[in-house]
Amino acid sequence: MPPTAQLCLVLHNHQPIGNFDGVFEQAYQDSYLPFLDVFEPFDALRISLHTSGPLMLWLADRHPEYLQRVRTLVQQGRVEIIGGPIYEPILSMLPSRDRIGQIRAYSQWIQEHLGTKVAGMWTPERVWESHFASDIADAGIGYTVLDDFHFHAAGLPKDQLTGYYVTEEDGRLLRVFPGSEQLRYLIPFAPVDQTIDYIRGVADQHPGSLFVFGDDGEKFGTWPDTQQHVYADGWLSRFFTALTDNRDWLATSTLAEAIDSTPPKGKIYLPDCSYREMTEWALPVGQQVQYEDATRQLRSDAERWEAIQPFVRGGFWRNFKVKYPEANEMYSRMLSVSRRLADMKGDIEPEAWNAAADHLYRGQCNCSYWHGAFGGIYLPHLRNAVYQHLISADNILNQQRYGTTQWVEATVEDYNFDGDQEVRLSGDQMVAWFAPARGGRMYELDMRSTAHNLLATMQRQPEAYHRKVMAGPSVDGDSVASIHDRVVFKQAGLDQMLQYDRYPRKSLMDHFLDEDATIDAVSKADAIERGDFVDLPYETKLRRAADRIQVQMRRNGNAWGIPLSITKAVTMAGGSDELEIAYLLEDLPKNRPLHFAIELNFAGLPAGADDRYFSDRDGNRLGQLGKKLDLHDAAGIQLTDEWLGIDIGLSIDRPSGLWAFPVETVSQSEGGFELVHQSVCVMPHWIINCESENRWAVTMRLSIRDRNAKPSSQQNDVDQAVVV
């Protein structure tokens, strides 16, 4: 008698671009390798395996023996390799050309290295929009896995989600499998018998049912406490034994086998959606809190909740770009590189174009563009990696256009898609972006030689889970909990470290403060803002010369209700690693002291290491970058990161007070809640007291020097470029 049900186990193994090598290795030892060790002897079982491009390339380099074992299982028909976009981007972030390009690039790599043709794909984070279907089909893919949550949102009841469906866009067909949320929560956390009983109960009512488990492979060993539970305590071996013992009625199948043996349940058009938890995380914080409270209340009535739940969902994934302006900055930067690359195709050497495209694709890796139960956008090394690859792609295109000559240019465009014009000053040494409509702030500053954005900062803002931080850690006894349920503190006293910024942590932000404002109040964002310059529009002019460019921004505003004006001008010269920043304050009141401060922030320079430190203009060390400084009559300051080889020097032509302090967030990751160093704030400030003239001026020079600058011909090498 043939089995009356099929189970498709779809594992998604992923590590993001920019993650530490030690994290890759630990996940390999804790999850990927032991899973394979347990799976191989159970020769009656079949699975579908997705390994993201960043992880696959790492495995090919560090553990080729693992891939050889996988290749053998593929040849035996026990493992189906499914593909997807190579560097695991959220598809809705990409223009159509990049969606197709990423998917095709990975399919080709898999065929060349694992000897199998890709027919299905993993949709990153199961973020779905209906128009994806045509691009996925055009890329040569026939099927993908989403969540049952998507199908409930389309109106299908649970008892109709016992197979796969066909969807269509512009005449292109795609098969879509509903992954079971129930199985995601049972496996591997519940006892094995409970999972088997659940499948049996549904199969008894609906013979011929197809069940799909599609979830992270890291939950088998890498997620907290699961290594002991899954392997040392034998959960996975017991699970595979149970599947083998029940194969008379329950067959394990790959997705490809399920399609070959089972007709589609019908046709469906799915709404724009993602898995349930992701829709919650995408909500604004206030609405997310309301959502959590409302659903918690509804769950107290189990019967009512079961009826309502299919119609309850949160927000739209794209609004992460609103919730976190830093995500929009990365997205905007990425899209500008993508457009430039597309425009230059055919006009540059194919090898250079492929190298730039590979950097672009790496810079599209999804993890740093959003935040939920994982660190995501709050992890500086992930944001830095995105910018590193985007800047590297831009460098390659500039090298093709300008060669090794010194050059500068100024352009004006709505670069961040907010309806206002931004200004870009770009040269052979650095690139700076300014938002005149947002206080004339500088919101990106790139070092070309190190491919590093010194303004990849992160604003401290409320998160819904900060309520858990205030409540304290949970006590779960000996049970193994999903990362969605655990409350673990990586440091003590995190509730005392919750601080929120009123403005983004950018540079050239102009503050008027009370005379007695202190570094403690300023660092905690408690100091009262007395002017209207920090976030309101400046009028803008560009000045161009053969070897230099300047953006000049002016605002007529007020401080303490007193009318005054600020003009600030930033000058960039070709071949120079220095910005000249000149301020002029006019119409100042006589005999009325004003406390004026200019905020600058620098990201990517971690705290807590002796080789990352402050020094004065004479080279005297002042402490690590995580230290608070309150200097008087300063002529400037220097920030050094010896590991990155970066020296940032700020010189000031009139004595100033100078505050410097770390900016740290309390954020959530799979391991628990932690304090994360985001950037260093440097704030020169003055008490201005005009006794006769009503003008005051200061000029600063901001130098960004690379201690280990490579020859230009070596700056843009690509490690394992795969785009063809």
Helix content: 25-40%
- Number of alpha- plus pi-helical segments: 20
Q: Could you tell me the strand content as a percent range?
A: 25-35%
Uncertain spans, ≥5 residues at pLDDT below 50? Answer: 711-720
Instruction: For the record, give the distance between the C-alpha atoms at the N and C termini, rounded to a whole number.
Output: 49 Å
Q: Rg from C-alpha positions?
A: 28 Å
What is the makeup of the main sheet?
12 strands, antiparallel
- The overall strand count is 26
- Shape from CA axes? elongated
Written description of the protein model:
With 724 residues, the protein is an alpha+beta fold. The protein contains 20 helices and 26 strands. The strands form 4 sheets. Strands 15, 16, 17, 18, 19, 20, 21, 22, 23, 24, 25 and 26 form a 12-stranded antiparallel beta sheet that branches. Helix 16 (325-344) runs antiparallel to helix 17 and helix 16 (325-344) packs parallel to helix 18. It is elongated and about 95 Å long. The chain starts with a strand and ends in an 18-residue tail after the last strand.
